[in-house]
Amino acid sequence: xxxxxxxxxxxxVPATITSRCQxxxxxxxxxxxxxxxxxxxxxxxxIQLDGEAADAIARGAEGxxxxxxxxxxxxxxxxxxxxxxxxxxxxxxFTPHEVVVSLADSLFVGNASAALDTVAAQSNLGKDxxxxxxxxxxxxxxxxxxxxxxxxxxxSQGKLLDLVDHFSAAESAMKWVAxxxxxxxxxxxxxxxxxxxxxxxxxxxxxxGLCNGEPPAPRSDRPAKVAPIAATPPPAPAPVLPxxxxxxxxxxxxxxxxxxxxxxxxxxPKPSPTVVRTPPPVVPKATPAPTPEPAAPVDAALxxxxxxxxxxxxxxxxxxxxxxxxxxxxxxxxLIVRFPAVLQEASSSMFMEKGIKDIEARLLQDLCQPxxxxxxxxxxxxxxxxxxxxxxxxxxxxxxxxxxxPMDPMEEFLHDPLIEKALEIFKGTLQTQKT
Length: 435
What we know:
Elements: H1 15-18, H2 31-44, E1 48-49, H3 51-61, H4 65-79, E2 82-83, H5 85-92, H6 97-108, H7 112-124, H8 129-148, H9 157-173, H10 180-196, H11 200-211, H12 300-314, H13 316-319, E3 326-331, E4 334-340, H14 352-367, E5 372-378, H15 409-414, H16 417-426
Parallel strand pairs: 1-2, 4-5
Antiparallel strand pairs: 3-4
């Protein structure tokens, strides 16, 4: 006899039971395998199942083959033996992938009207807005993975991460609200504000450029919608008045003129034509362009020292540790630089992706060939020890001041200028009485 115990919380099963059981972890079935099995069932049951319809059922089953077969039975009950992708979308409330892509593109270009219209249209068609949000998160995740592996996207990787976190939280919140359309509308508007925010990396780059005297880069604005200009009607033609009849004048008397005398005609001889011959144009000979001299080879070690000094000067916080790098070799289109092992954590910062691209662009400019930068970390290398601080100077010993012996008060009194002046006036002397 065999007992089968199924649970979704295997970590709560006591060790006394798990030690006597064979454990089999069941995982979700990939969508392409479910699609293949559905097409196999449809072929045996003489059902015309379109490939796109099978793909929609497989994605909606979320890895469960039993759920996919139940959905196929429902479609046969509703649509008969011919099942199309549109029928699956209508019955289960799925959203076509083209609508999800259109909603994401509207967010990227900042078109709030188009994004909200898409949400309203799906709500009016009776689509499940929670599933629409989940499919939008899945689409953003695919764009994020594509960009991380070398693909291109309309927005930066940091903005994609913010959108994935934002719509994932919105999807979780929609499970507990009654008006899901309101929740999704608010999430779309907030996502547009997130895309307009400036990241910390942009602020640091702008401040670094200002410290180096570079003007700040202009912020790229979203394409604004231009209102259609109404065509102004052409001005009405001015009415043409009929010409007024000329007033009748009295008949003039006939004028009799005397015959004019004939004037003598002078004949002027015509000048003979002069033929002017122009010399043929002189075409200057084209001088061959001077052949450029081959550029002198650049020392790779010196090139790295310049790059390390420049990058650490521009931003000590991000690239100050470049000064500890030691050029090792240049081989196979790779420039290898060795660092102390304690600096390996600094190489995994969020700024290194852009820093690596800037360094390779600089290497292409200096070495005239595409070169990749490679960092190696060696335990044998040590960071430069800080310079010892100068020892404080010993305080100088002040020389002892020799005080003069105190003066006798009587002597000081006798040498007083006023006393001497009085003695001179009265011609007298002072006498002291000894006791």
